[in-house]
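forwarding from the other thread:

> can someone predict this with alpha-D-glucopyranuronic acid?

sure thing
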Amino acid sequence: PPPTVYEAENATISQGVVESNHAGYTGTGFVNGDNIAGSYVEWTVNAAAAGTATLTLRYANGTTANRPMDVAGTLVDFPGTGAWTTWSTRSITVPLTAGANLIRATATTANGGPNLDHLAVTGP
Ligand code: GCU
């Protein structure tokens, strides 16, 4: 089955804003998290059954510095994409429980995270 897409602009946002000034996003915009460690986006992901899921985060980073985030306990690098209008993806696998799972992406450095467009979930 195709992935289920959860837009960042519809998620819970702590210390960030929804914006739409850089083209190429899906949905109605993206999240620009504050440039601090600890800013986050949290999605509620519904799994039909317990098992391993692939989480794919779509992002843009118009700087040349990596903007790492802790994504559900995994440290994920978000290197520069060349422009704020150039979007790329990073994927990890995580275990999910049946039903609702909170998936939080938290900036781990003072630069904050990248701009986040959406979370796409495949399986279980
Ligand atoms: C620029 C850009 C924002 C981005 C920010 C950042 O201001 O326009 O979209 O979030 O840089 O460095 O995080």
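Residues 54 and 93 are 4 Å apart (CA to CA). thats all i got for now
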